[in-house]
TrEMBL record, chains A, B:
Source organism of the structure: Dyadobacter sandarakinus
Name of this protein: Recombination protein RecR
Domain Toprim: 81-179
Cited NCBIfam families: recR (TIGR00615)
Protein family: Belongs to the RecR family.
This protein's record includes keyword Zinc: yes
ZnF region ranges: C4-type: 58-73
Amino acid sequence: MNYPSRLIEDAVTEISRLPGIGKKTALRLALHLLKRDEEQTLMLSEALLKMRTQTTYCRKCHNIADNELCNICSNSKRDTSIICVVVDTRDVLAIESTNQYRGLYHVLGGIISPLEGVGPADLQIDSLLTRVEQSGEDPVKEIILALSPTMEGDTTAFYLQKKLKATGVKISTIARGIPIGGDLEYADEITLGRSIVSRVAYD
Amino acid sequence: MNYPSRLIEDAVTEISRLPGIGKKTALRLALHLLKRDEEQTLMLSEALLKMRTQTTYCRKCHNIADNELCNICSNSKRDTSIICVVVDTRDVLAIESTNQYRGLYHVLGGIISPLEGVGPADLQIDSLLTRVEQSGEDPVKEIILALSPTMEGDTTAFYLQKKLKATGVKISTIARGIPIGGDLEYADEITLGRSIVSRVAYD
């Protein structure tokens, strides 16, 4: 397309690099911003930049955090004997919104996917093992694997089971009440809450 | 939702102010940017800011432009005796891509919509009249109204006809090959091109 201005073209190019946003939608968003107050674009631009450059991760569970420890890891009321393993922050938010879980989390930061070139070394798996092994006088008793029931999720769960076996910790997986092929974050709260309560222990 | 970090929350809030983007999509986009190189967010942020603060408009047709005159108005090969009136830049792009039109444009910058508080004074209507009246030795012979066949589009077309009547210029509208209620920008190129060629003169 022959954009009327290089500035618009640059903006459209950058916006359309976001997942699920094509050139037409990008142009619509750009023209929307042009019609609105300059303030709005300024705040959007600054919020994105700040988020990307200043966001830190919890040194314990690798969730996004404002401080060295996230709100959950630094909350003394949480049950430290149980860790729920998830792919990313969205899964933490989804499980938290069920109000069914009072333990801690471990955010892998992705899922094993040979097709996309993501291997175990790219994920926070070693740090999970270290967490379990070095839990000392406040031992981790159970690991819940809360991964989406997809090919990648199952592969990752299988790998984690193998790795964690030596530590002797109890490993469970959330109940497969979630439809196969569905995405964890889009499950409704009742289904997701139930799947935490009726988790199934690996034998 | 309890976002794990204020930075994420701010970013999600700002992203979800864009049309058609809800909180869940905004969070997905934010986490996507966090996973990618810092460079990408930097470029997106800068492109948006530059676009919003530096974009200028053609002083003749009010289309978005890099210079005082847009590429179309400054192109000596275009037919200056004919002006196509459109709502915004997307419509110019859509008509240009048909390769059926060699005249000039006039971008209204919106459409008359009492419900949204947009009146004739908010649009580039007076400047269109001035363009027609002051065309002098290189007179404008025809005005094509290329507005979406919706309530607002018809109202605007009706208002423009009334205003332009005194100038004696020929007024036409693009053929209604476009489905009623459809959006101009999503019409396919053949339909849109045909509608330019077989435009119907107002009697």
